[in-house]
Amino acid sequence: MSFEELLLELQGKKTVEEDNKLVALDLLFNEGFMSKHSSFKSFEEFLQKGNFAAKTHEEIDNLHGELFDRHVVRETSFDNWQAMLDSAKSEYAAKPLA
User: Fold this and answer.
1) R_g of the chain computed on alpha carbons
2) Whole-angstrom Cα distance, residue 13 to residue 5?
3) What's the pLDDT score for residue 24?
4) CA 68, 74, 78, 80 torsion: positive or negative?
5) What is the pTM of this model?
6) For residues 96 and 61, what is the distance between their CA atoms, to the nearest angstrom?
7) Tens-level pLDDT at each residue, the chain (98 residues)
8) pLDDT, tens digit, for every residue of 63-79?
9) Measuring CA to CA, how many Å separate 3 from each of 6, 8, 10, 96?
10) What interhelical angle do 81-94 and 66-75 show, nearest 10?
11) DSSP bridge partners of 76
């Protein structure tokens, strides 16, 4: 563990390098995040609106593509899926540990 990681842990913060694939999608794309960046209260609603189905990170990874990016652009404040994912990871990492 690096000094920076130890400092963040002691301050009650997570590192951005934390493996976010272990974080449940509903925590990563929580109601606050979705309400702030879209008209949806849940990530599941967002996916359903675009006729996408995914419950795991692996299934989300398989959605990458032009159609999913267009859905993100239409329904959120992001320019593409990667920007949405990066923002969700950053916001999640910035939250204090419970």
Assistant:
1) 14
2) 9
3) 81
4) positive
5) 0.75
6) 27
7) 566 655 556 655 554 444 555 678 888 899 999 999 999 999 999 999 999 988 888 888 888 689 999 999 999 999 999 999 999 989 988 877 65
8) 868 999 999 999 999 99
9) 5, 9, 10, 18
10) 60
11) 38
**Reduced 3-state DSSP string for the chain:** CCHHHHHHHHCCCCCCCCCHHHCCHHHHCCHHHHHHHECCCCHHHHHHHCCCCCCCHHHHHCCCCHHHHHHHHHHECCCCHHHHHHHHHHHHHHCCCC
* pLDDT tens-digit readout, 10-20: 655 554 444 55
Tokens of 95: 């939250």
Which residue is associated with the tokens 């992001």?
78
Give burial (CB, 10 Å; 0-12/13-18/19+) of 42: middle
